[in-house]
Design brief:
7 strands; single chain; about 15% strand; Rossmann fold; about 35% helix; alpha/beta
């Protein structure tokens, strides 16, 4: 199945900002409930330890991503890190589903951040969850090159896959808001309107979910992508990690300056 670059509705400039927040809140709630990325904690922990970073800059965070769960699953060597959530269309702190605070080490950054040109002052290991597929190959490579140019480690994690089964699973996934929308906080009447009376949110989830699968990169494509990067030598690990509780596998790419690589004994 060839990769197809197409648009996702909720990320378009013309899509209403309030509706976009509703969609990203649903994505956040679903990811938290399913613990979608729990199984990659060991992979991420090893990369953080090897990079020597105590800070994380999460890119394309939407309403928060999986960091509240992951920060509690990292081992003692990487516990207590500080995570900064960023996005090109940032959610104001406290407006999303994710409860962040200095106590849990996860906070929102309120200025827009382009993943291809991360501001120099935002230093730390960069992460992206279910967002790398948004970018066509040239822009995806630019994201990796920007991390290399800045000398920062980077981790890419994708639960979407380019397969018939993954596409088929988007249909039950798009119906899930009909079940859990009443439990989303903060409560909004508009969310009920766009879920039940005018089911825009389920339809957007279905369309964007299918497009996400068709845009997803396979490990061999990621390997080709890192071959063309210029700069200091990096250590790259690319593969798939088994999902949580029988869930779909997670495609991952992690990289960091090769000089910081630790031995297996140190890891």
């Amino acid at each position: 199945m060839p990769r197809i670059q197409f648009i996702e509705v909720h990320e378009q400039p013309w899509f209403p900002k309030t509706l976009r927040s509703e969609v990203t809140d649903v994505l956040q709630f679903g990811s938290e409930a399913a613990k979608t990325y729990s199984s990659i904690a060991p992979v991420l922990g090893r990369a953080l330890a090897a990079s020597g970073s105590r800070s994380v800059v999460d890119l394309c965070s939407g309403s928060g991503g999986p960091w509240l769960d992951l920060s509690q699953r990292l081992d003692a060597d990487t516990a207590g890190i500080h995570v900064l959530l960023t996005d090109k269309f940032p959610v104001a702190a406290g407006q999303g589903n994710l409860k962040t605070s200095s106590a849990n080490g996860v906070q929102f950054y309120e200025k827009p951040v382009d993943a291809k040109q991360v501001p120099a002052e935002l230093t730390g290991f960069r992460t992206m969850f279910t967002s790398f597929h948004h970018f066509p190959p040239a822009e995806a490579r630019a994201i990796l090159q920007n991390a290399v140019d800045a000398g920062q480690g980077i981790g890419i994690f994708e639960v979407t896959r380019r397969s018939g089964f993954a596409i088929a699973m988007m249909f039950p996934w798009s119906l899930s808001p009909l079940v859990f929308t009443p439990f989303l906080r903060p409560f909004r009447w508009s969310r009920l309107l766009w879920t039940y009376m005018l089911p825009v949110i389920p339809l957007v989830l279905l369309f964007d979910g299918i497009v996400s699968c068709l845009r997803s990169y396979r490990p061999r494509e990621l390997r080709e992508m890192v071959k063309g990067l210029a700069g200091p030598k990096y250590h790259w690990e690319i593969g798939e990690q088994a999902g949580t509780k029988g869930g779909p596998p997670i495609t991952f790419l992690v990289g960091y300056p090769d000089g910081r690589r630790l031995t297996k004994e140190q890891l």
